[in-house]
């Protein structure tokens, strides 16, 4: 099996990590493309002493650490360069959050996460604890849940409330979701893809975003369908069935990049 064939199944999930890490589909996907270009340019440098998935993420981390590029920086007037740089640096995902995303969202062991971010294994637990402590201090959000499965909706609501956030409502259809959002504007939306009346959570979110901007996390049993990199796709994505830690990490990172919860 060629290296490309070995890496292909892991690319959708690397896109998920890149998007969560940068808070942007465009930026996250650019890092993934840069990672693949680096592998194609120098396949002999790809880590062969570890699992292909681990080697892929390690190459991504190397690109992330060495080239935190920004599309708008090159186009900005000279006098704006400092402001652009400050804004970019202020939104850089700290090492602690990288450790949290790699373990809670991507499912790596602490040992593997340590290899990826190049720290000692003993440091990973401390970094994750640091990220969780930071989450506790995070500005509270008002959350709209769009989910037609009652048990799952209750579970998500419990997680959201345990994090200290307020739930503005639980919608089971597209129309209900839009109505609830217009009635009481949330600061975060958690949306399933397939809803009760065969309507789409994606369409519900599009309707909401047409009225006002709000960070969105999609929840789906088929994440690879929304992680192709070929069209506008979600920045934040949770895979069903999910762990509480995964939801917690996703909510935290979505709010980390939201203008209303992150200092300018």
Automatic annotation (TrEMBL):
> Which terms does the UniProt entry file under GO BP?
phosphorelay signal transduction system
Respond yes or no to whether keyword DNA repair is given for this record.
Answer: no
Q: Domain (Response regulatory): give its ranges.
A: 142-255
- Which SMART domains does the UniProt entry name for this protein? REC
Pfam families named among the record's database cross-references: PhyR_sigma-like, PhyR_sigma2, Response_reg
Give UniProt keywords alphabetically. Phosphoprotein
Residues found modified as 4-aspartylphosphate: 192
**Entry's SUPFAM superfamilies?**
CheY-like
Organism's domain of life? Bacteria
The question of whether tRNA-binding is a record keyword is answered with no
**PROSITE patterns per UniProt:** RESPONSE_REGULATORY
Please give the PANTHER family that the UniProt record associates with this protein. PROTEIN PILH, STRESS RESPONSE REGULATOR PROTEIN 1
Q: Identify this protein by name.
A: Phyllosphere-induced regulator PhyR
